[in-house]
Amino acid sequence: MNKLFIFLFIFAVSISVVSAHTISNLNSSCYSVTHTDVSGTLIEDLLIDNTCEGVSISWSNQINLTLGVIEPVEVNVTGEKVFVSSSLRPDLNAPATITYDSPQTVTTPTVLKDGIECGDCNITHSLQGTVVDVVSFSTYTLQGAQDFTLYSDIEPELPRLFEDGGKVYQSVDLGESTDDYVCLVQVFAYNERGDLVLIQTNPEREAKGNFLGDPDTNQPESLGYFQPKNGLANTYFRGEGLAAYNDFELVISCRDSINTLKVYEESFSTRYSPAGRQLEARSLWLTDGDNAFYLVWILVLSLFALWIGGSIWRSVTGRR
């Protein structure tokens, strides 16, 4: 009996010790949470690491976890967004370091705080990734370079790309009244390993003939680049080759004669397209706006037309 009592006592103590050291309920298999105990709820060297996406937050100073275990609703660490709720977790609202092992942008990324370029961030870019020292917490995201304005509505155009291999056009506004720039449009896609690969460069090199049959040397396809006029240009990318991928980075690079480079990068996806290849894409399209209503309406009309056709056929053949 005494041995059983001692065993149960040791077991209970061990369980309480494990519970005391459990500081996180970030239960995704991607998350790794480490720290060093100091005293009671006081810890140091807290590291929350999303190993699947290569993004982490680290606090080097001591933190007093007065609000208990860290819950998923309070912290989100992904390549798209790094978030710590300063209202739910004021104990974590302290200077920290965000590390991106491999930012998913083609160009050198800009760090946004609540959608605006972060003015109080200390940012270091290297071949190993991007390191961002922040003084407090909110929502931090990375965005590729956007040195000029681009007017584009890619989403409605994507179905046409898959239907006939057409083009999606954008309007570039360099903000300068100069004809000295030339622009190229590139599309990068994520392969099965999550790496960005170049899949397309525009304009496509194809010398198009004019009315008399000679090549029109003023066309982008003949020039090999898009030529802005008064700082404005119409550019495009093509649908061919996109069906093999889901997520893309659109990069438009414009350079002048003195080698001044302006770049615009934007992410886009075909996952929401009705012509998408996956069930996820089709289900998203079905629940988008009035698409489901029109689909049901077409089905009703089709059944009605079938009934009319069957009635005519029976009257002609004399069958009932």
Give the number of domains: 3
The end-to-end distance, rounded to whole angstroms, is: 89 Å
**Globular, elongated, flat, extended or rod-shaped: what is the shape?**
flat
**Helix and strand pattern:** HEEEEEEEEEEEEEHEEEHEEEHH
Average of the residue pLDDT scores: 80
Strand content: 25-35%
Uncertain runs are 4-20, 273-289
Provide the gyration radius in Å. Answer: 29 Å
User: How would a crystallographer describe the biggest sheet?
Assistant: 7 strands, antiparallel
By DSSP (H or I, 4+ residues per run), the number of helices equals: 5
Main structural class: alpha+beta
Extended strand count: 19
Helix fraction? 10-25%
How would you describe what is shown here?
The protein is an alpha+beta fold and 320 residues long. The protein folds into three domains: 18-143; 149-269, Immunoglobulin-like; 289-317. The chain is 22% helix and 34% strand. The chain is built from five helices and 19 strands. The chain has helices spanning 2-21, 154-164, 220-223, 279-286, 291-317, and strands at residues 31-39, 42-50, 55-59, 63-64, 75-77, 82-84, 96-100, 110-113, 116-117, 122-126, 129-134, 139-143, 149-151, 167-173, 182-190, 196-202, 232-238, 247-255, 261-269. Strands 1, 2, 3, 4, 7, 10 and 11 form a seven-stranded antiparallel β-sheet that branches. A five-stranded antiparallel β-sheet has the order 5-6-12-8-9, with no helix packed on it. It has a four-stranded antiparallel β-sheet with strand order 16-15-18-19, with no helix packed on it. The longest helix has 27 residues, at 291-317. It is flat and about 90 Å long. The N and C termini lie far apart (89 Å).
